[in-house]
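Private note to self, pasted from the team thread so I don't lose it. Backbone tokens:
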């Protein structure tokens, strides 16, 4: 109760009994669970083994994928190098097949050009050969 009651401080306070310390003893109940049966233990073991095998398989597949990616990257680098070499070689072919460049090279080697009469006789000789072969093929067709 409060010390001040209805405007009067002189009222006597009621005595409160002293608190006794009570100790409550509890008994601890120990419940022993039954051990797992052998079949259930084997089932758990089998489940763990299967999980480990699946995890191992997944890791192995990821390792293969990583290895393939590395091979792909090296092949792509080789392809880029070969393409660069091809570009250089095409430029050399274009440079060397240029008629002006061929003429310079021929002069360096001391070669001379054939005049148009020689070229004309070679062309007429090839025409004669073609006509002769055509005539022989006609003769073979006419024979029974």
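Design output:
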């Amino acid at each position: 109760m409060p010390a001040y009651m209805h405007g009067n401080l002189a009222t006597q306070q009621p005595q409160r009994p002293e608190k006794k310390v009570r100790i409550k003893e509890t008994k601890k109940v120990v419940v022993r669970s039954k051990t797992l049966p052998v079949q259930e233990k084997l089932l758990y073991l089998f489940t763990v083994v299967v999980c480990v095998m699946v995890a191992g398989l997944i890791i192995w597949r990821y390792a293969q994928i990583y290895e393939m990616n590395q091979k792909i990257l090296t092949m792509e680098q080789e392809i880029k190098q070969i393409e660069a070499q091809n570009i250089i070689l095409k430029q050399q072919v274009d440079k060397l097949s240029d008629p002006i460049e061929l003429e310079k090279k021929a002069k360096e080697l001391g070669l001379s050009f054939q005049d148009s009469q020689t070229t004309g006789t070679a062309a007429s000789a090839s025409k004669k050969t073609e006509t002769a072969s055509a005539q022989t093929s006609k003769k073979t067709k006419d024979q029974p």
